[in-house]
Amino acid sequence: MPVRILKKKELIPGQTVLLVLDAPQIARKSRPGNFVILRVDETGERVPLTIADRDAEAGTITLVFLVVGKTTAHLATLGEGQDILDVCGPLGKPTHIEPCSSVICVGGGTGIAAMHHIAKGHVAAGNKVAVIIGARNRELLLFREELAAFCHEVLVATDDGSLGHKGLVTEVLKARLEADKCVSEVVAVGPVPMMEAVAKVTRPFGVKTTVSLNAIMVDGIGMCGACRCTVEGKTRFACVEGPEFDGHQVDFQELKMRLGQFRPEEKDCFDKFRCRS
Amino acid sequence: MPEQPARERAGNFREVTLGYTAEDAAREAARCLQCKNPPCRKGCPVEIDIKGFIGRLREGDRDGAYRVLRETNSLPAVCGRVCPQEVQCEGACVLGKKGEPVAIGRLERYVADSFAAGNGCRQSTGERACAAPREVRVACIGSGPASLTAAGYLASLGVAVTVFEALHEPGGVLVYGIPEFRLPKSVVRRELAAMGEMGVSFRTNWVGGKTITVRDLLDEGYAAVFIGVGAGLPRFMDIPGENLIGVYSANEYLTRVNLGRAAFPGYDTPVCRGARVAVLGGGNVAMDAARTALRLGAKAVTVVYRRTKGEMPARREELNHALEEGVRLELLANPLRYNGDESRRLTGMTLERQRLGAPDASGRRSPEPTGETFELPVDTAIIAIGTRPNPILLESTPELRLGKRGYIEVDPASGETALPRVYAGGDIVTGAATVISAMGAGRRAARAIARKFLGEDAVTA
Hints:
The complex is a heterodimer of chains A (about 280) and B (about 450).
Chain A: E1 3-12, E2 16-22, H1 24-29, E3 35-39, E4 47-55, E5 60-66, H2 70-77, E6 83-84, E7 86-91, E8 102-108, H3 111-124, E9 128-135, H4 144-150, E10 153-158, E11 165-166, H5 169-179, E12 185-189, H6 192-202, E13 208-212, E14 228-231, E15 234-237, H7 238-241, E16 244-246, H8 252-259, H9 263-276
Chain B: H1 6-9, H2 22-30, H3 39-42, H4 50-58, H5 62-72, H6 76-82, H7 89-92, H8 104-119, E1 137-141, H9 145-156, E2 160-164, H10 173-176, H11 185-197, E3 201-203, H12 214-219, E4 224-227, E5 233-234, E6 247-249, H13 250-258, E7 276-280, H14 284-295, E8 300-304, H15 316-325, E9 328-330, E10 333-340, E11 346-359, E12 365-377, E13 380-383, E14 387-388, H16 391-396, E15 422-424, H17 427-430, H18 435-454
Parallel strand pairs in B: 1-2, 1-4, 2-3, 4-15, 6-13, 7-8, 7-13, 8-9
Antiparallel strand pairs in B: 5-14, 10-11, 11-12
Helix pairs in contact in B: 2-4, 2-8, 4-5, 4-8, 5-8, 6-8, 9-18, 13-14, 14-15
């Protein structure tokens, strides 16, 4: 059954888009950390997108995506009132939320949107939540105001220093962990190199570190194993056993390689789409 | 039965076997002895009245023959194509003792196809389809052969059935697993449309255990829930290099091509078009994957199997089709590791030569390692060594009792699980098996559901 787009907002023009979808059943069931698989139209590819927010009463879910290839570019052309052919979810295991803890949530780029839902879940459970968000400049920082509204603290890092710390989120994180010994968990969602760097920073502090892996998926329900990752030396399926895993145990090198496996096909498909539109 | 020539068909996705003409079918039907006590029916997991449908066909009553098929089989056009008839109905045929058994599967296919061609929307079957609608609602989770059979049976009794499918198209393994050249998707769609006309409704993108749970369905007023979610997760061998780029599960490879239409112009789903492909395993899925790889343009496709040809679980017909099309066999070989380059792309496999030892629990002789190793250069490897239970629905329904291997335990006669009003059948109960055995389980459960919720009188067949 097609799913209607109720609201669309370009968070970063030509780059990052927010969609609010009319999906009551998914909204009712979704928890922080869940994702959906969608297919824009009949010839489209199934792609996973993390749920950035939900409103169970309104029956809506929010998706935020970066235009990186054909599917996301096509999705970005759709407007309010238009339909996405297939949206399936909520998929994946929800974030494990340990009560009575002090958590730092780190988000980079579009990952801030997915991290937002996780931070919200921690706050709802009564946890103390500080978030650290980073981007190239202040214009690219997503969800800053939303996060400030419910998190205990919002720390910012920008590459150009236009807001907050000039530099990387990992530098802010390191300083924080040195000063604050009460942190029980760090959650990181963002580009793979960022999550890898976060895990590297937290390791000497011995802080539990959770990362959300954006592996390639086909069905999203454990049928195919396209999303397999190595965690603690064992093969795990990100779609049904994840997408969140212990960041200190993930083979990020393998993840990066596997994410690039269809790059020529993806580029070709994107090029053809751009020529047509 | 006429077929596309091997060389030609290995380059296209059109159906390999072409089906009977009316003359072929009449000639074949005339061979049937119309036995007093036909053993063929006992060989059929859904108990088709084989003598009856062939009898009608002999009288030239094709529509009547179709009605007989549909009395017990919701998917005759599918079964006529993918059932292992040689070990079921045809295996039991009296004529088979001395010569060729009656080609029951081909006749079934002929009747289903020609009826559909001539009748279009009237396909939605015999009188029982007109059964008065009842208040009873039943939910089926999954839309493969087991669920479809349960749904078809119950709908024919007037039950309102809703089928919940996790993927974007209903059909389960018939859609994502079995390739177009063996079971055209148009045939599956036709059978599904016929079920739609009987009143079965389909909801796609609904994941049982995620979008909706078994408990939700019971709470929403469904009298019973049938779980037919299939076996699920692909098995890997846990050997080095298995996550290299170019190593696929057969499920992934086939789903990309069959459901995602990866090979078809205009579709976005990518798939690796390897030049040198190895397929690990000796079953029907391995044959499907190997023959798909050929059609995607592979120069060399090798099926690697650790026993010999005689122990292969694939149907002879499938194996022979694969060999005719140019698939090679590497028998008595078992992979030790996958080897890759610096960008973690697969470049080859290291295999170990096996020899056959004593028979194992399944009666097949077990392979034993010899210590002799050799290399097979490949850029794609497809692992088709079976599946294990999918955890999604099971984790969300802790009340179900599971067996040692993790599959759902049911009462063998009714298919009822440890959770009252919840039934299960097909691969999620037995582990990976055939389309028709799943259909048999769907039918048993549907019959038990009908007895319980409609009364003994409602159950006719």
